[in-house]
């Protein structure tokens, strides 16, 4: 870009001239940023995926699949990291390595908990409150800022709920029945 005067922005590779212009107003800046806050390109794919699903099936199936993928995917990453000799120095107990038998036992218990406990709770919640139509599977999809806001809110609520339920399970009268 030799020969063009870019003022303060010289030396920067700016793809959006509007944002680099010193004459850009806040309204123009807001309009450009707002244009990226959409998922409209994904709407045809989403419509194809969800065309034959009832709201209950959509909520149950997708929630179960996403939560299971997060649980077992994350666990698999840590399983692999546990067998990296170069990372053992960071372990709290570097000389104590879990056996494959212990991992297998843990996996079976995790699958049982995920299917029986989480599946039953999810099905029960959807049965009780699924008719409230708190979600919509139809287009238009929510904007990314809405998804981010709801994700942060969910993480906070889930973390607080987990803490208080776990604390309640440590009550003397209940502890001996739930912890092994």
UniProtKB/TrEMBL annotation:
<keyword id="KW-0812">Transmembrane</keyword>
<keyword id="KW-1133">Transmembrane helix</keyword>
<protein>
    <recommendedName>
        <fullName>Fatty acid hydroxylase domain-containing protein</fullName>
    </recommendedName>
</protein>
<keyword id="KW-0472">Membrane</keyword>
<dbReference type="InterPro" id="IPR050307">
    <property type="entry name" value="Sterol_Desaturase_Related"/>
</dbReference>
<feature type="transmembrane region" description="Helical">
    <location>
        <begin position="147"/>
        <end position="165"/>
    </location>
</feature>
<feature type="transmembrane region" description="Helical">
    <location>
        <begin position="59"/>
        <end position="81"/>
    </location>
</feature>
<feature type="transmembrane region" description="Helical">
    <location>
        <begin position="102"/>
        <end position="127"/>
    </location>
</feature>
């Amino acid at each position: 870009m030799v020969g063009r005067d870019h003022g303060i922005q010289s030396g920067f590779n700016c793809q959006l001239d509007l944002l680099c212009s010193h004459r850009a107003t806040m309204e123009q800046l807001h309009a450009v940023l707002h244009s990226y806050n959409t998922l409209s390109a994904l709407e045809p794919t989403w419509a194809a995926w969800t065309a034959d699903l009832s709201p209950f099936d959509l909520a149950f199936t997708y929630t179960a699949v996403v939560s299971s993928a997060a649980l077992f995917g994350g666990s698999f990453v840590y399983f692999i990291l546990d067998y990296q000799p170069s990372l053992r120095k960071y372990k709290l107990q570097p000389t104590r390595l879990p056996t494959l038998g212990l991992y297998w036992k843990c996996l079976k218990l995790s699958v049982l908990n995920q299917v029986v406990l989480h599946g039953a709770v999810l099905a029960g919640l959807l049965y009780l409150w699924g008719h409230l139509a708190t979600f919509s599977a139809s287009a238009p999809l929510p904007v990314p800022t809405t998804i981010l806001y709801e994700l942060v809110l969910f993480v906070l609520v889930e973390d607080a709920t987990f803490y208080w339920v776990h604390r309640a399970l440590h009550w003397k009268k209940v502890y001996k029945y739930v912890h092994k």
